[in-house]
Amino acid sequence: MTAVTDHTEHEREREHGRDRGRERDELSDGPPKAPEGADGDDGARSGSEGVWDDGLIARRGGAAAGRGGGAQGAAGGADAYAPAGTPSEAPSSTPSGTSSGASSSSGVSTAYEGPLRARLDALRELVGLSRTRLDSATLAEAGRVLDEAAARRRLSGRHTVVAIAGATGSGKSTLFNALAGVTISETGVRRPTTAAPIGCSWTDGAAGLLDRLGIPGRLRRRPLQGPDAATLEGLVLIDLPDHDSAVGEHRAHVDRILELVDAVIWVVDPEKYADAMLHERYLRPMAGHAEVTFVVLNQVDRLPGDAADQVLDDLRRLLDEDGIALGEHGEPGATVLALSALTGDGVGELRDSLGQFTKERGAAARRIAADLDAAADRLWPVYAAGAGASGGRGGTRIGLSEEAREEFADRLADAVGAAAAGQAAERAWRRHAGKACGTPWLRLWRWYEAKRGPQNFGWPVPQAPADEEATARQRVEHAVRTVADEAASGLPQPWGQAVREAAVRGAEGLPEALDQLTVRAGVPEGRPPRPGWWPVAVLAQAAMTMLQVVGGLWLVAQIIGVAVPNLGVPVLLMLAGIVGGPCVEWGSRMAARGPARRYGLDAERRLREAAAGCGRARVLDPVAAELLRYREVREQYVRVTGAAVG
Questions:
Q1: What does each C-alpha distance from 391 to 335, 398, 493, 496, 619 come to in angstroms?
Q2: Cα–Cα distance measured from residue 236 to residue 351, given in angstroms and rounded to the nearest whole number
Q3: 614 within 8 A of 513, measured Cβ to Cβ
Q4: Which strand ranges, in their side-by-side order, compose the sheet holding 220-221?
Q5: How far is CA 419 from CA 152, 298, 316, 575, 604, in A?
Q6: Which of 263, 205, 261, 257 is closest to 234 using CA atoms?
Q7: pLDDT of residue 447
Q8: Which contacts qualify for 315-319: CB closer than 8 Å, 24 or more apart?
Q9: What is residue 262's DSSP assignment?
């Protein structure tokens, strides 16, 4: 095995004799044309002697062209890292040991279809429906997941991007080199050793993925093309800087790339496997990404006897406390292994696990699904927290119950005085019945008293108290607050606030509108309708009056000597009229109770319905619209979580 030449030396070689055209080719990952008599000869010698090249992708492509591999070799070098889906991807060269069918497969994985596609669509719809109700910071993570999912889907689906992360001195670069079969990433006692992420791809066509990670062409490598290369077909391995590096730029590289890769291999050593920074900052927050996580206990060669097993068991315990599911007994979860990158013990097992993991080509979809789960967990407080909790008389039902609506209508009816208006209408009907069916002498007496003292008698309209208007307004405001609190009960805070604001906006001008309704829908003008028995009662009262008049005139005639003296008959007539008149009036009052009550209830009902209609149009309908919007986003949120909408 030949060590890799430092990439800076080859960089200096390419600077000599390179024109602008070759410079553009270098930036676009195309094969720079070798200077005459330089790279081509080197490539020929390299091929004839069986010595592995330096690993630089652009130089490797140029060497392939210089070896005279024909059009196919040149195309293979040119498309070594072309983005997936470009026309040049189809004829790309296939590394030794890989099948041509794998290299010509479609760049878009079918794993993005079906449930995952439905969840992404639901999240996109959820964000769109929520922009006017939630601030941009709350939706930022969901938007990032959508953007990254779309970006990853556009790139190659036959590659799996795996990052190797770890603390200072954990041996991740050594493991990176062991998997590649050649020294690619620099190792040593200097800390930190890895200053920038380095990418290594086992298959052509991964340029778009590395561009997305921000890895420049000078840091892109090729593994040793040996018998084990076919095992890791489709793998793109990234060696990250130390996550606990003292250099802030290194930590920024780690945090940025960990959000973009399909899977992560966490390398820990016997000294730092329980490091609080690792568990609290990375492992615990990414517990939901267990299926795309490998945890490797490195440097087991330093542990005597059964100490390696004990440390591995303790590591599994810590991971379980972090909430990371372990992939044991065929269950999905994180893969935990022990190895020594320095001696090679256990590296083959990791290579086989990575090979199977890459062969499935589902890591990218599983990573996006885990990101969706994490985004859904972060959005739980604004979409589901408190929903379904017992809130008021509505029980576990979100929204306004029928009882709450009726109470709101009752409060508005009290504010407009619907009951008082009904009682006034009932009294008016009774007064009208009394005028029509009462004795004429009583009506005459009432008229006289009204003329003599109108301020003390009659049926004056009662004067409203000075603070009645303010009291009615307070009742309306209280009714609106109560129904808003009832509607917002059980909703997450942003949506409950939106419901309350809708109710407050609708309540503006509601007292004035109710006042106008009181005038229009109160007691109707004019006389109340007469029932069918009124004419009979009026005739009976008139007959009683006539009896009194006839009897009285007869007695007067007897007194002045015009008529024959006979006191019995006129006295009986007068007594019949005097007694019969009040009896007819009393009977009419009894008969008028039912119609008067119905008339008053009808007036109260009209005013109540008018007030309820006004309140419904101004308050309940806007509140119902907000509740309907929440139900829509709630359904979309449930779809984002992957659960069935019931």
A1: 44, 8, 13, 12, 20
A2: 13
A3: yes
A4: 220-221, 198-201, 235-239, 160-166, 263-268, 293-297, 335-338
A5: 67, 84, 73, 43, 6
A6: 205
A7: 66
A8: 315/268, 315/273, 315/274, 318/273, 318/274, 318/279, 319/283, 319/295
A9: S
Higher pLDDT, 541 or 81: 541
Rg of the chain (C-alpha set): 46
CA terminus-to-terminus distance, the chain: 61
- Listed in sequence order, the residues at least 6 apart from 224 whose beta carbon sits closer than 8 Å to its beta carbon are 1, 52, 180, 181, 182
- Where do the H-state alpha helices sit in 187-285? 207-213, 248-258, 276-277
User: What's the whole-number mean pLDDT along residues 136-156?
Assistant: 92
Q: CA-CA distance, 58 to 491, in Å (whole number)?
A: 58
Name the helix (H) or strand (E) containing 201. strand 198-201
Dihedral class, residue 561 (left if φ above 0, else alpha if ψ from -120 to 50, else beta): left
How far, CA to CA in Å, does 401 sit from each of 106, 181, 404, 489?
A: 54, 69, 5, 11
- Name the one residue in this structure whose structure tokens are 């972060």: 378
Write down the mean pLDDT value for the chain. 75
Q: Measured in whole angstroms, how far is the alpha carbon of residue 244 from the centre of its chain?
A: 35
- Bond before 460 cis per omega within 30 degrees: no
The number of beta carbons lying within 10 Å of the beta carbon of residue 87 is 8
Query: Could you give the percent of the chain with pLDDT greater than 70?
Result: 68
Check: CB of residue 187 under 8 Å from CB of residue 177. yes
pLDDT at 110 over 90: no
pLDDT at 121 over 70: yes
CA distances from residue 74 to 61, 79, 94, 156, 625 in whole angstroms, order as listed: 7, 9, 13, 21, 63
pLDDT of residue 544: 77
Tokens of 439: 């004795």
Buried b (16+ CB within 10 A) or exposed e, 513-538: bbeebbeebbbeeeebeeeeebeebe
> Which secondary-structure segment (H or E) carries 160?
strand 160-166
Alpha-helical runs (H) found in 438-467: 440-452
Question: 219 is written with which tokens?
Answer: 């840091």
For residue 509, give Cα distances in angstroms to 401, 545, 612, 613, 618: 25, 56, 15, 14, 9
